[in-house]
Amino acid sequence: MKPAKVREWSDEELKTKEKELAEQLFKLRFQKAIGQLDDALKIRATRRDIARVQTVRRERELQEQLFRLRFQKSIGQLDNALRIRETRRDIARVKTVLRQKQGSAQAGPAR
After folding, report:
1. Given pLDDT bands bounded at 50, 70 and 90, which one contains residue 2?
2. How many degrees, rounded to 5, is the angle at CA 25 between CA 44 and CA 31?
3. 109 or 65: whose pLDDT is higher?
4. Residue 41 to residue 36: CA distance in whole angstroms
5. Structural domain boundaries in the chain
6. How many Å apart are CA 37 and CA 78, to the nearest integer?
7. pLDDT at position 108, please?
8. Contact call for residues 5 and 41 (beta carbons, < 8 A)
């Protein structure tokens, strides 16, 4: 599953997909425990897909929070102006981690 494809989904689709992936991960772990799992890499791929979905949900959550804070600031209801800075930094952290992961994935495995 590609991150660009995940970003196209609606919030409701993300929640549904996250639940489906969690159920799939449970089933895979159960199969591993009883010795019926053929490909152990499916567990790894499923965990990563769950992480992608959660990352996109978190990005959207932070963007919404930043929007609400800026709106509160514009109408004079913001009690702590530093919350905007904190939220922008949270967004930057998420994006930095994503860029680092993309860079390491493009570079390939270390030899």
Report:
1. confident
2. 95
3. 65
4. 14
5. 3-106
6. 53
7. 62
8. no
